[in-house]
TrEMBL record:
Cofactor entry: FAD
Membrane spanning stretches: 161-180
Name under which the protein is recorded: Acyl-CoA dehydrogenase family protein
Family: Belongs to the acyl-CoA dehydrogenase family.
Top-level division of the source organism's lineage: Bacteria
Transmembrane in keyword set: yes
Domain Acyl-CoA dehydrogenase/oxidase C-terminal: 228-372
UniProt domain Acyl-CoA dehydrogenase/oxidase N-terminal: residue ranges: 15-115
Length: 379
């Protein structure tokens, strides 16, 4: 494989080959070990996959959102934990690119683009529902021209290895966002173990014990982050999860088709049973429908159309629930083997369940999408 120049966009066929050869064979082991090896993360950087959406002058390849979604789909097909790291890194990097000032972009984007520094998104509070994005258990107090950050965040994907934390905190004028180096004095990282799914995404609880921040840590004006920084980052995260869910459906489909083509029952192959063929047909239809919804959301993002927010909600809702069903069906098709460690479908099933919870649970999505439907009728 020829070397990729820094601003050259990775081709999907190259990404697919990487997933087939360097991700799929090892994903179950990573899941058991609850970590992804550093050489794999470095390989992601070599392929230019950490932030290909950045413009070339910022170290990216100017990749459009539709193609970025396909990249995250491919990675999600192989390992949802690795795709989750891409998700949060995308959220942080895009935030710096869109909302950061010139000094913040100059300081952080080169390392974020290469993956030399990885980003983590710190919003969820341990004492509040994850969907309660207004919770302000973490606070930042302005003192003598600087800030003092206190509080705790949990379920932080990539928190064990991130070098840059995008932290949301309550301030006197409302929610604010801060860029906090993970090695800053007063930052304490505690790994979260034994997760149901995405076990290799190296989650952490992160505490901030009187962390002193200079004014340049603030992203935008104080009290300004709720409707701008947070909304934009969560929209990108939701989009990545939707696309990654398409990948899970593809993984479940491939595993089920291969298994039923080799396994016999009652004198014939499993693939010839009508119940099996019905489940395979449902997976194919779900894969194609979910991908179309993701592509619609991506096109609207590329066009700068605010309708992308709702399109992404719909894509994530459909894709995540379809992935959960595909994962469950894949385990059922595999029978007892589907519950054991020798086939990938148990991991796919557990990862798919996580997709129904993160970046807006299924129930929150049902409320949000229904609200939009009623607004459309009212017009």
């Amino acid at each position: 494989m020829r070397a990729r120049t820094r601003t050259e966009a990775p081709e999907l066929v190259v990404v697919g080959r990487f997933v087939d050869e360097e991700v799929v064979p090892h994903a179950d082991a990573w899941d058991r070990d609850e970590r992804i090896p550093g050489d794999v993360l470095a390989r992601v950087g070599e392929l230019g996959l950490w932030a290909p959406f950045l413009p070339p002058e910022a170290g990216g390849a100017g990749m459009d959102m539709v193609t970025l979604g396909r990249v995250h789909e491919e990675v999600g097909r192989g390992c949802s934990s690795l795709r989750s790291l891409l998700t949060v890194h995308t959220m942080v990097t895009a935030t710096v690119q869109r909302w950061g000032d010139d000094e913040q972009r100059e300081r952080w984007l080169p390392a974020l683009a290469e993956g030399a520094t990885l980003g983590a998104f710190c919003l969820t509070e341990p004492d509040f529902s994850g969907s309660d994005s207004t919770a302000a258990g973490t606070v930042a107090v302005a003192e003598n021209g600087s800030w003092t950050l206190r509080g705790r965040k949990t379920w932080i994907t990539g928190g064990q290895l991130a070098g840059l934390l995008l932290v949301f905190a309550g301030t006197a004028t409302g929610m604010s966002a801060f860029l906090v180096p993970a090695d800053h004095p007063g930052v304490r990282v505690t790994p979260v173990r034994n997760m149901l799914g995405t076990s290799a995404s190296m989650l952490a609880t992160i505490e901030f014990d009187d962390v002193r921040l200079e004014p340049d840590a603030l992203v935008g004006p104080p009290g300004w982050a709720a409707g701008t920084v947070m909304t934009g980052a969560l929209d990108l995260g939701r989009y990545s999860v939707a696309c990654g869910s398409v990948g899970i459906i593809r993984g479940a489909l491939a595993a089920s088709a291969a298994y039923t083509s080799a396994r016999s029952a009652g004198g014939g192959l499993l693939r010839d049973l009508p119940q099996i063929r019905a489940k395979i047909s449902e997976m194919v239809t779900a894969r194609d429908a979910a991908r179309l919804l993701c592509e619609k959301a991506g096109r609207l993002k590329d066009a700068g159309d605010p309708a992308t927010i709702m399109a992404t909600w719909v894509a994530k809702y459909f894709a995540s629930t379809a992935a959960a069903k595909a994962g469950a069906d894949a385990v059922q098709i595999h029978g007892a083997n589907g519950c054991g460690p020798d086939y990938p479908v148990a991991r796919l099933y557990r990862d798919a369940k996580v997709m129904e919870i993160i970046e807006g649970s299924t129930q929150i999505q049902e409320l949000t999408i229904a609200d939009e439907a009623y607004r459309e009728v009212a017009k």
